Amino acid sequence: MGARYVHISEEEFDEFARSKSFLRTNDPMLHANEIIYERHARHGMARMLIYSTISTMGGGGRKVGSDAIRLVLQVLRDTEWGGVGWKAKRVHRTKNWRANLTSRMHDAAEMVHTETCPLCGHAMIKRTGKHDEFFSCIMWSKTGCNGSTR
Ligand SMILES: [Zn+2]
């Protein structure tokens, strides 16, 4: 099994993240001993985080095979970032990690509408109805906002 995994250096990860328009986050609310990258949706109400497994203490990734890269999707509710019920997607550090992580980014991007809620300005998230998919306001459960693409 060990041979399936590859070592990823900090420089390699940085280069990949930048090529996907991700930057190292400076969000003080995110405490981690690994480097976290973020990319915001154009409207600013959603973001993706990559938990890189690259140690903030230098020396590259954690022990090979010991953990996976995670892609997390969050939205802003008022001033607080939080999850959307879209489970963090894991990417194992095998030689295809770049392609696999890129594919997860596409999945995450598809969850969030490019426009914000017409009623309150928050992000709209993909929902699956009985007969169709649509996007509706993330604040529905909090404020009852009915903004949607329906
Ligand atoms: Zn709304």
Descriptive notes:
- By secondary structure, this protein is of the alpha+beta class.
- It has two domains: 2-109; 113-150, no CATH class.
- Helix content is 19%, strand content 30%.
- Strands 1, 2, 3, 4, 5 and 6 form a six-stranded antiparallel β-sheet that branches.
- β4 and β5 form a beta hairpin.
- It starts with 9 loop residues before the first helix and ends in a 7-residue tail after the last helix.
- The mean pLDDT is 90.
- Bound molecules: zinc ion.
- Zinc ion binds at residues 117, 119-120, 122, 137, 139, 145, 147.
List the defining traits of the structure above:
6-stranded antiparallel β-sheet, 150 residues, 30% strand, alpha+beta, single chain, binds zinc ion, two-stranded antiparallel ribbon, 3 helices, 2 domains
Question: Can you give me a brief rundown of this structure?
Answer:
By secondary structure, the chain is an alpha+beta fold. The chain has helices at 10-19, 97-111, 140-143, and strands at residues 23-24, 34-40, 46-55, 69-77, 80-83, 89-91, 124-128, 133-137.
In terms of topology, how is this protein built?
Elements: H1 10-19, E1 23-24, E2 34-40, E3 46-55, E4 69-77, E5 80-83, E6 89-91, H2 97-111, E7 124-128, E8 133-137, H3 140-143
Antiparallel strand pairs: 1-2, 2-3, 3-4, 4-5, 4-6, 7-8
Residues 117, 119-120, 122, 137, 139, 145, 147 line the site of zinc ion.
